[in-house]
Specification:
By secondary structure, the protein is α/β, with parallel strands linked by helices. 41% of the residues lie in helices and 15% in strands. Strands 1, 2, 3, 4, 5 and 6 form a 6-stranded parallel β-sheet that branches. The chain binds flavin mononucleotide (FMN).
Length: 199
């Protein structure tokens, strides 16, 4: 079986977003893994409209070519790491909209998260896990939380320092999350392949 392919999805889209900094750090870190391959997927590149289909694509194929292009991209992967901010104690609206714009493509694949904010986006990631359940994903227990004083060390809301200043603090949760992701990505990929072969 080929290595699981993982999409690292940047979940905020505003021009002044901080997201690029933790996403770039994460992409550097995942180069050390030999059991999965990773691509950066930026919601900004997909120009998704606010959801305007007659139904989820679980029921009716989507019509808007931007939604279809998004579904095609998402369908290429065996698992996901959402790099998420916390807006009003939840995930950004742009990320929720992107989750709504596909259904079939998310299912039976693991959903991991790296969050940042005052409390490391803990509340947003809890919401993300609940959304993932409805999409028939496997929400992971382990997540990377860049929060509290560590968040303010590297955010422009604080000292805007380099990610290397918080690297050591994030490593244990990163490695727990990636180990868990590797296991679920590999077993769900094998099971999906088996089902496809039997069909
Ligand atoms: C609309 C909005 C709502 C926010 N709500 C929260 C929040 O509930 N909890 C929190 O820790 N930070 C909150 N923040 C601060 C964000 O953590 C911080 O601005 C972060 O950089 C946002 O991510 P982004 O730069 O990738 O958009 C909020 C920021 C915005 C713009």
């Amino acid at each position: 079986m080929t290595k699981p392919r993982i999409a690292v999805i940047i979940g905020s889209t505003r021009k002044a977003r901080f997201a690029d900094k933790p996403a770039a750090w994460l992409m550097e870190q995942v180069k050390k893994r030999h059991d999965m391959t990773f691509d950066l997927v930026d919601l900004r590149d997909f120009d998704l409209p606010l959801f305007d289909e007659v139904a989820s694509n679980a029921w009716v194929p989507s019509q808007d070519p931007r939604a279809v292009a998004w579904q095609k991209k998402i369908g290429e992967y065996d698992g996901y790491v959402f790099v998420t901010a916390e807006y009003g104690h939840s995930i950004p609206g742009a990320l929720k909209n992107a989750l709504d714009q596909a259904y079939l493509e998310w299912g039976r694949k693991p959903a991991a998260a790296m969050g940042y904010g005052g409390v490391g986006a803990a509340r947003a990631i809890e919401h993300l896990r609940a959304v993932a359940v409805e999409l028939q994903m496997v929400p992971l227990r382990n997540a990377v939380h860049l929060g509290g004083g560590e968040f303010f060390k590297v955010s422009p809301l604080g000292q805007n320092g380099d990610m290397s200043e918080v690297d050591a603090v994030l490593q244990p949760s990163l490695s727990a999350m990636l180990d868990e992701l590797a296991w679920w990505a590999s077993v769900t990929k094998a099971a999906r392949n088996e089902l496809a072969e039997a069909a």
